[in-house]
Amino acid sequence: xxxxxxxxxxxxxxxxxxxxxxxxxxxxxxxxxxxSLNWFEGTDGSQQxxxxxxxxxxxxxxxxxxNNAIINVEDSNGNLFNFTEINNTGIxxxxxxxxxxxxxxxxxxxxxNQTYVGTETLITTxxxxxxxxxxxxxxSGEDIELKAYYTDPANIxxxxxxxxxxxxxxxxxxxxxxxxxxxxxxxxxxxxxxxLQSGDEVTITNxxxxxxxxQFMDLLLQQSSSDSGGPFETQPATVRGNCVNIxxxxxxxxxxxxxSQAYQFTYIVQ
Length: 270
Fold this sequence. Notes:
Layout: E1 2-11, E2 14-23, E3 31-40, E4 48-54, E5 70-75, E6 80-85, E7 91-94, E8 104-111, E9 114-121, E10 128-137, E11 143-151, E12 159-166, E13 173-178, E14 186-193, E15 201-208, H1 211-223, E16 243-245, E17 254-268
Parallel strand pairs: 3-17
Antiparallel strand pairs: 1-2, 3-4, 4-7, 5-6, 5-8, 6-7, 8-9, 9-16, 10-11, 11-14, 12-13, 12-15, 15-17
């Protein structure tokens, strides 16, 4: 793939414009699987969706959907849930999913005559007990910090995936936690945002996750941190999820298949 970048150098009062042609390596697009089945408190969990897309070159502005796939999820009781694509969007939906704590689910995707599979168990979690606000946080001592407290069940290995969404940030803040050093205690998930102000709404979502997904997300979050370097830095290794291509293992997919119990809590900044 050849892209043209313009490097504009200003020397005294004169501008020089040089054209730099970069030959960037290309690769065949990979299937990207966003299969997060979430059973939220207060719902029957029957409506679920899975999104399929294709990986694209770095400078492409659009992500192409993966259309015309065949998708189903089967539980260990033999219940089969078929997912149907909505208007060529790459988003596939079902309305008869049956969520059950500790139930094992098997995902099957057939796309371009290749079969992708993944297995996950529906993991339980605990709700947020309360939120504590600190108005003197951050490096400046002037940022608002939130601590979402929850009580970890004792004598059980637990892993948590927290998502913080606000009306002032386009991208949600994601965090994962384990209870290796906090088993059975009341602990908190932490969130701060430089521009957070009184009256802003923060939606806190907590998902129960497996150890494997915890490790997957932990690696992704480390690689996407603000000090990970720019596009011309050495890129980190690909983090593979729990889905495999059983037709052609070398053509592995990206993404993950996750099944979680979830709680949502809305907090208004004081």
